[in-house]
Amino acid sequence: MATDPLPAYARIRYSMRAHYDAPTVHAILDAGLVGHLSFIADGRPMTVPLAYARDGACLYLHGASKTRFVKLCRDAAPLCLSVTILDGIVAARSAFHHSVNYRCAIVHGHARAVEDAAEHDHALQLITEHLLPGRYGEVRPMLPKERKATGVVALEIETASAKIRTGPPVDDEDDLTLGLWSGVVPVVTALGRGIADNHTPEGLPEPASLAAARRKFAE
Amino acid sequence: MATDPLPAYARIRYSMRAHYDAPTVHAILDAGLVGHLSFIADGRPMTVPLAYARDGACLYLHGASKTRFVKLCRDAAPLCLSVTILDGIVAARSAFHHSVNYRCAIVHGHARAVEDAAEHDHALQLITEHLLPGRYGEVRPMLPKERKATGVVALEIETASAKIRTGPPVDDEDDLTLGLWSGVVPVVTALGRGIADNHTPEGLPEPASLAAARRKFAE
């Protein structure tokens, strides 16, 4: 698309519901809350849920410096990050045509350890603010020992695809007159009002980042 | 636990938030809407979102007979299914202590193609009714050609773990008096009223499966 400076990603799979342009993939990555990262460990596939953030065509992930996926960077291991937003349950007139409405982005790349101090800080800010926009400036600054304890992994998007299903069920023509109920059950994910902990001063209003998060994830 | 006939699963990783008993793992699998399945394809990790259902210590997955993961059964490939339910964003007084409240089950096993007709039918009913309890009996029965077009994979749970975080932020003692707002932003996933398609008879009430689904996923 002309409005996006990034190249279209390579095609890795064809599907009626598949998209391979960067803006579509990026929009799903930006709208998701948590991702599922998969990698190969001891010859087996392994998946972990985790927070992430996007910066152009680069995804940032973080974890305790000792965790398995951070250690994978030493080997530039292949990674796959999948972000799925469920929008509805599609109830058709036959079990066969049942489906779900969803948006999913699947990204492939290789792990790169982020060692540069400025990039490390930038990544941690982006990961924090992916969920709570503006939060980094509201809290106590990061300490050197905290930076040391936090491993950051960069995953440059090498190939990616998006799969999207929207709309009503697609029933067989013969089934349309069966007199059955068919349609979509919406699935909505929403953020509520913040629940302050016991050490928050009485009467202190919610910080701006919470309202920003509710706006961001309201769609 | 004495109330569950299944053995505890083998420990695959230790964590403060980890659980390895079957009832905890099963409860998360039953409460999740969609899962993320990972497998190894051409030496790379691959993850796809998909519907699933649990029957005791066996998970059932399905897909078009021609899809890659169904073909994996020929090689009894190792699979990993991850189901995550996000419950809240944990906003601490430092970026370092930000977190999320979540329930995640991670299951490992090997792919087995379901060839037996009775088990195939049973699995498709369970997968349909995982999202819409009772739906199988409300719709037009499955046709032989539909059965043939649908590949079913069984994943016997060999090892599994659950990771759960609940509660408020855990801030550093020194940060508690900073006068900052700290707490949890609830994340709620809910099912709405069904939206009937254009071929549903006017005035036909929602089928019982939709209300059953709303009750099931209301927590």
TrEMBL record, chains A, B:
SUPFAM superfamilies: FMN-binding split barrel (SSF50475). This is Pyridoxamine 5'-phosphate oxidase family protein. InterPro entries: Pyridox_Oxase-rel (IPR024747), Split_barrel_FMN-bd (IPR012349).
